[in-house]
Design goal:
This protein has 345 residues and is an alpha+beta fold. The protein contains twelve helices and ten strands.
């Protein structure tokens, strides 16, 4: 949309003030914000034109105006400028990732939590496994006479484990036998190949012992499925309760944050674009029609398989959040790459 210079300056001023206060902006205040001498009457006429173009809205009977979702989109596409992060700001983000031998699951959860604290919004972090991931090894660790922990280590560094209670006595001989058997059948095999049909063929190979070891095989299958599904964490949902624009929709938003399938769809966007911003009704879900979804994509190794996103009000401080989110995503990708794709020594 083509706007003349004065209209652009007025729209930019209204968006910036609305982001700061959350309140409708009147023509007198706009005149005060501009660095040139424009009368309130002139501002009022220009604001009326912006209203007719669908870039401003008038809430209720207020004398002021607020940006429409289209107005925010024009602002983001044509007017927004983001200053580079200072070294101090970079250092504060770097400090969040100053960990040794991080567990990828814990790292993603901590990243989402840290970003939620910084932004005051809800956050989502997720990775998809690379196209070809194999089982590196399987370990059985005894936790009691009838309880064993299954540990599955994947080639991308992801580790999944879960404790299982068995009817049989977990003797060292039995555990040694199954450890060797499982690694012979699963190690170096693609996660995608580990299907129910493949498990059935392994159970047949166990012969009379198949019924005894079926719970362990089922456990390995479940952990492999979790690796195949990737990692997914949400944090900061209760932050949204503090925004007045979400008073009527808070329940729907919090319910959405618990729905992994819907959220994964929300996070999807062109893989060639490192940053995606969907404003208001640009989001196809009704729960997000008053929200902005800001998503940064990052690489884990050679794969563009990670995303971290912020869900908050349309009036979020984009000039501040965008550079922080981009740097945050870059550092998260670097650390996950080091952890999940360690260099051969």
């Amino acid at each position: 949309m083509d706007l003349d210079r004065r209209k652009m300056k007025i729209l930019s001023a209204i968006v910036s003030e609305y982001i700061r206060t959350g309140e409708p902006v009147g023509s007198k205040r706009v005149a005060q914000l501009l660095d040139t001498q424009i009368s309130p009457a002139t501002c009022r006429n220009e604001m009326s034109s912006l209203f007719d173009l669908g870039l401003l809205e008038q809430p209720h009977t207020s004398a002021g105006r607020v940006p429409s979702h289209l107005g925010f989109r024009v602002y983001l596409d044509q007017m927004l400028t983001c200053a580079p992060l200072t070294e101090a700001e970079k250092d504060s983000i770097d400090a969040l990732f100053n960990v040794r031998n991080p567990d990828p699951d814990r790292l993603l959860a901590d990243a989402a939590e840290a970003l939620a604290r910084f932004t005051g919004c809800a956050t989502v972090s997720a990775t998809r496994p690379p196209k070809y991931v194999t089982v590196r090894r399987i370990e059985l660790i005894p936790l009691g006479a009838h309880v064993v922990m299954i540990v599955v280590v994947a080639s991308n560094g992801v580790i999944k484990n879960k404790a299982y209670r068995l009817d049989m006595l977990c003797t060292p001989e039995i555990l040694d036998f199954f450890n060797k058997f499982a690694n012979d059948r699963f190690a170096d095999r693609s996660i995608d190949e580990i299907s129910t049909g493949y498990l059935h063929s392994i159970a047949v190979a166990l012969g009379e012992y198949s019924q005894v070891f079926t719970p362990l095989l089922a456990g390995i299958f479940e952990l492999c499925r979790q690796i195949r599904d990737g990692q997914f964490y949400t944090q900061g949902g209760t932050n949204l309760l503090g925004y007045p624009e979400f008073r009527q929709s808070a329940h729907d938003l919090l319910t959405l944050l618990e729905n992994r399938a819907l959220l994964q769809d929300v996070l999807e966007g062109p893989e060639t674009r490192a940053l995606n911003i969907k404003v208001g009704k640009e989001n196809h879900l009704a729960q997000l029609e008053n929200s902005t979804v800001l998503v940064a994509r990052y690489n884990v190794g050679q794969d563009s398989s990670g995303v971290i996103g912020v869900i908050g009000p349309v009036r979020m401080d984009y000039s501040r959040l965008i550079p922080h989110l981009e740097y945050f995503a870059k550092m998260l990708g670097n650390l996950l790459s080091d952890t999940m794709n360690p260099k051969e020594e």
